[in-house]
Design brief:
two-stranded antiparallel sheet, binds FE3-S4 cluster, binds iron/sulfur cluster, alpha+beta, globular
Protein backbone atom coordinates (compact mmCIF):
# COMPACT_ATOMS: atom_id res chain seq x y z
CA UNK A 1 0.00 0.00 0.00
CA UNK A 2 1.02 3.55 -0.69
CA UNK A 3 -0.57 6.91 -1.09
CA UNK A 4 -0.51 8.47 -4.55
CA UNK A 5 -0.62 12.05 -5.87
CA UNK A 6 -3.34 12.35 -8.50
CA UNK A 7 -4.35 14.72 -11.28
CA UNK A 8 -5.62 17.72 -9.34
CA UNK A 9 -2.15 18.46 -7.99
CA UNK A 10 -1.07 19.53 -11.49
CA UNK A 11 -0.52 23.30 -11.56
CA UNK A 12 -1.79 23.61 -7.96
CA UNK A 13 1.20 22.20 -6.11
CA UNK A 14 0.33 23.65 -2.72
CA UNK A 15 3.04 21.51 -1.03
CA UNK A 16 1.22 21.29 2.33
CA UNK A 17 1.66 17.54 1.94
CA UNK A 18 5.44 17.77 2.05
CA UNK A 19 5.43 19.46 5.40
CA UNK A 20 3.74 16.57 7.22
CA UNK A 21 5.37 13.52 5.62
CA UNK A 22 7.43 11.72 8.27
CA UNK A 23 9.64 9.96 5.73
CA UNK A 24 10.14 12.78 3.18
CA UNK A 25 8.99 10.69 0.23
CA UNK A 26 7.70 13.52 -2.00
CA UNK A 27 9.48 14.41 -5.25
CA UNK A 28 9.02 17.62 -7.20
CA UNK A 29 8.50 18.41 -10.86
CA UNK A 30 7.76 21.90 -12.08
CA UNK A 31 3.98 21.49 -12.02
CA UNK A 32 3.33 18.34 -10.02
CA UNK A 33 4.51 16.35 -7.03
CA UNK A 34 4.73 12.58 -6.72
CA UNK A 35 5.11 10.11 -3.86
CA UNK A 36 7.69 7.34 -4.06
CA UNK A 37 5.55 4.21 -3.58
CA UNK A 38 8.39 2.20 -2.07
CA UNK A 39 9.22 4.90 0.50
CA UNK A 40 5.69 5.84 1.60
CA UNK A 41 4.83 4.16 4.91
CA UNK A 42 1.11 4.53 4.32
CA UNK A 43 0.56 6.70 7.39
CA UNK A 44 -2.14 8.76 5.68
CA UNK A 45 -1.34 12.09 7.33
CA UNK A 46 -0.78 13.89 4.01
CA UNK A 47 -4.19 13.07 2.55
CA UNK A 48 -6.29 15.57 4.58
CA UNK A 49 -3.60 18.27 4.31
CA UNK A 50 -3.92 18.73 0.55
CA UNK A 51 -6.20 21.70 -0.29
CA UNK A 52 -6.73 20.21 -3.75
CA UNK A 53 -7.72 16.77 -2.42
CA UNK A 54 -5.09 15.35 -4.74
CA UNK A 55 -3.74 12.57 -2.51
CA UNK A 56 -5.44 9.19 -2.36
CA UNK A 57 -4.60 5.71 -1.08
CA UNK A 58 -3.79 3.36 -3.93
CA UNK A 59 -6.80 1.28 -2.96
CA UNK A 60 -8.99 3.97 -4.57
CA UNK A 61 -9.84 3.20 -8.22
CA UNK A 62 -8.97 6.77 -9.26
CA UNK A 63 -5.46 6.33 -7.87
CA UNK A 64 -4.61 3.29 -9.96
CA UNK A 65 -3.67 5.07 -13.17
CA UNK A 66 -1.46 7.47 -11.19
CA UNK A 67 0.52 4.86 -9.32
CA UNK A 68 3.04 4.22 -12.10
CA UNK A 69 3.29 7.96 -12.82
CA UNK A 70 4.26 8.47 -9.18
CA UNK A 71 6.78 5.66 -9.32
CA UNK A 72 8.32 6.79 -12.60
CA UNK A 73 8.87 10.43 -11.68
CA UNK A 74 9.88 9.75 -8.07
CA UNK A 75 12.91 8.05 -9.61
CA UNK A 76 13.72 11.11 -11.74
CA UNK A 77 12.76 14.24 -9.82
CA UNK A 78 14.48 15.78 -6.78
CA UNK A 79 13.26 15.19 -3.27
CA UNK A 80 11.25 18.01 -1.67
CA UNK A 81 11.13 18.24 2.12
CA UNK A 82 9.84 21.75 2.89
CA UNK A 83 6.71 23.65 1.93
CA UNK A 84 7.15 26.40 -0.64
CA UNK A 85 4.84 29.00 -2.18
CA UNK A 86 2.23 27.58 -4.54
CA UNK A 87 2.14 28.99 -8.10
CA UNK A 88 0.35 32.36 -8.12
CA UNK A 89 -2.48 30.95 -10.25
CA UNK A 90 -2.84 27.72 -8.24
CA UNK A 91 -6.35 28.49 -7.01
CA UNK A 92 -7.63 29.07 -10.54
CA UNK A 93 -6.43 25.58 -11.53
CA UNK A 94 -7.97 23.82 -8.54
CA UNK A 95 -10.64 21.49 -9.89
CA UNK A 96 -9.94 22.15 -13.56
CA UNK A 97 -10.65 18.97 -15.57
CA UNK A 98 -8.18 17.25 -17.89
CA UNK A 99 -5.08 18.69 -16.30
CA UNK A 100 -3.31 15.55 -17.40
CA UNK A 101 -2.98 17.08 -20.87
CA UNK A 102 -0.86 19.91 -19.48
CA UNK A 103 1.30 17.43 -17.63
CA UNK A 104 1.75 14.97 -20.47
CA UNK A 105 2.81 17.75 -22.84
CA UNK A 106 5.60 18.67 -20.47
CA UNK A 107 6.10 15.94 -17.86
CA UNK A 108 9.50 17.13 -16.82
CA UNK A 109 8.03 20.48 -16.11
FE1 LIG B 1 4.30 10.51 3.51
FE2 LIG B 1 2.51 9.28 5.04
FE3 LIG B 1 1.72 10.62 2.88
FE4 LIG B 1 3.04 8.35 2.60
S1 LIG B 1 1.01 8.59 3.49
S2 LIG B 1 3.41 10.22 1.48
S3 LIG B 1 4.45 8.44 4.35
S4 LIG B 1 2.67 11.49 4.72
FE1 LIG C 1 -0.04 18.70 -4.70
FE2 LIG C 1 -1.75 18.76 -2.75
FE3 LIG C 1 0.72 18.35 -2.21
S1 LIG C 1 -1.76 20.08 -4.53
S2 LIG C 1 1.79 19.48 -3.76
S3 LIG C 1 -0.55 17.02 -3.41
S4 LIG C 1 -0.65 19.59 -1.04
Amino acid sequence: MTYVVVENCIKCKYTDCVEVCPVDCFYEGENFLVIHPDECIDCGVCEPECPAEAILPDSEPEAQEWLEVNRKYAEQWPNITAKKDAPPDADSWNGTPNKWQHFSENPGG
